[in-house]
Amino acid sequence: FFGAKPEMVLLGGMIVVAQMGDPNASIPTPQPVYTRSMFGAYGGALAHSSISFISAAAQDADLGETLGLAKATVPVKNTRGIGKKDLKLNTELPEIEVHPETYEVRANGELLTCQPAETVPLAQRYFMF
After folding, report:
1. Does the model's pTM come out above 0.85?
2. How far apart are the C-alpha atoms of 94 and 70, rounded to whole Å?
3. What is the pLDDT of residues 32-51, one digit of tens each?
4. Which of 41, 100, 102, 106 is the most buried (most CB within 10 A)?
């Protein structure tokens, strides 16, 4: 279930989100179990367990201090040169055509076909509650 509903989310070593049943239950395993915010998602805890990305110029101008940000600030760099070519498994840019009446899909003139899926990962059964 991790891809759809993580058991717990830790941020900077603090529990931010976890699966939890009814907080008023008198037994240790109440159902249904919902994703709920925990103590790491409230108050000053969130500011101490996360960072804000800002430009190098803003970092040099001490913008985080000027704005009174509680989070630590970290400058980003080399973002203007990053593009599709830098992706490891997704560098293709085919010419996509969809026929308006038959809905046939072609990539660079080649017809794309596939059989209907029998099962779909992370589908409805993972989201009953």
Report:
1. no
2. 45
3. 888 899 999 998 898 888 89
4. 41
